[in-house]
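Q: How do we represent a protein-ligand complex in a form that can be generated token by token?
A: Start from the inputs.
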Amino acid sequence: MKYVDVTQVQKRMNGRILKNNSFKVLFLLATIFGLIVLGVLIAQVLTDGLSWINWDFISGKLSTDANRAGIMGAILGTFWVMVVVAPVTLIIGIGSAIYLELYAKKGRVQSFIQTNIANLAGVPSIVYGILGLTIFVRALDFGNIVLAGGLTLSLLVLPIVIVAAQEAIRSVPQHLSEASYGMGATKWQTIKNIILPAALPGILTGAILALSRAIGETAPLTVIGIPALLIPFPGGIFDKFTALPMQIYYWTLDSSLVEEYANLAAATIVVLLLLLFILNSTAIIIRNKFQQRY
Amino acid sequence: MSVSIAKGNTNVKIDTTVMQPTAVNSDKKVVFDTKDLNLWYGDTHALKDINLPIYEKEVTAIIGPSGCGKSTYLKTLNRMVELVPSVRTSGVITYNGREILSKSFKVEELRTRVGMVFQKPNPFPKSIYDNIAYGPKIHGIRNKKIIDEIVEKSLRGAYIWDEVKDRLKENAYGLSGGQQQRLCIARTLAIEPDVILMDEPTSALDPKSTHKIEDLIQELKQDYSIVIVTHNMQQAARISDRTAFFLNGEVVEYDHTDTIFTNPSDMRTEDYISGRFG
Ligand SMILES: Nc1ncnc2c1ncn2[C@@H]1O[C@H](COP(=O)(O)OP(=O)(O)O)[C@@H](O)[C@H]1O
Ligand SMILES: [Mg+2]
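Then emit the structure tokens for the protein with adenosine-5'-diphosphate bound:
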């Protein structure tokens, strides 16, 4: 006697196929829902803001007069913040990841640190703002300059960079480092010549995604007291600044006073989205280009 | 019962009642001498009282069923086992008379003298040239002309020069599996070792590539001492001068390959080579 009875199988076939198809539809609907919400959001922002975007708006100074206001100050502020965040997170992030993956003895201490890094990635961003306010703005007395904002945002995204770099390092196959050790290379030679080059695309992808998270953050910057006042363009990391998300935040707040501010906020959102889009695409391009094939 | 065997300049007592390596007489020089080696992975006792002399410019094959400790023994000879944190060893291994398991013998130096070829071809994701140049570079050779020479000499030594000489700058991953394995052998030759350890180097290859590598091993033994782990009994019989049969972490029998395959003294060896288990 056969256990898989053909008539039984046939009887159940329709039910199985129905179930199969219903789940397909369910998942499709879930995706469509997400896409629709996203589409509505973007459409809204574009209708409100697109007609306000022109060169004068991009390159202009901040102004209380909606028709003359520009966002160059915020763009430069965001740029200088990136100049701080990128090297700080890359150096500290890669360093910690190398230590945790390749040097730290696997044990209680290591797994304690590991758990906490994962937890830090989930801490609300406003908490980092408070930390930044306490340490950089007040204790170190930087004031609300680019450096203070950049370091605060670095703290915020550091866990993301560390975890991404750890994963990239872990995904370098063991047989490559074995080959290197097998020829008498030291640990550092193996890390520098074999492991890091192979892990670099993954690390960069993670770092760029973290950077795009950092430049979209508002809460920590409000906490450390970043204004959207009529300040001069920042020329370096020691200047006072404002940033794109701050600009959006204040204009939205004040849109009850001046109606056009809502359009200015929308136009700024378009610019910020474009920037994020470019950053994320770069990450994807890097990932695809160096798609690892061992 | 206990017999004394003269090998080169050393005398080792071997207790034949526990089926330790049987008489292996030779006036050849011993490169590696292993005495009472035990190895544990945590609580797993992977190598038990290994006594095994390895002779210069010979091919020594290590055979035995899966999990009997062949790879572990091979990796002890260049201390690659130390990459596993739970490993503990006892006993003595000497390389040209120097004790290698002590911390005072730097692993980097040992691995420059004792090269290794792995089971799965593992070239670096770099160009063919850079794969070979890697070893000389990490050992401090900077002169481009010297590195060029080493690259050519090593690739010729592994009989792959003619196949790759026009594409040295291409990625090594474009080579076939067999070519990759010969590239890995060439990469090992580039550090100019005395001994080459090979862990089932042909198990991932097709018969034709396997044949090429076996020929290459025959050539290499003119200049190098080779220790090869193999799953393939015919291969051991074809290419090795001596064969050690491992079982459950012990050396059951060690002798000239002819003797092992035609007239083994242990029942278990006979069972294994005639395919009755493993
Ligand atoms: N990294 C490791 N950690 C723990 N046990 C190991 C490790 N590598 C090998 N072993 C154990 O040691 C024994 C010998 O393994 P191995 O030397 O790989 O055998 P072989 O190469 O003969 O197949 C096996 O029981 C295996 O499970
Ligand atoms: Mg093995």
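The pocket of magnesium ion (ligand 2) is lined by residues B 70-71 (CB under 6 Å). Chain A has two domains: 6-52, 56-293.
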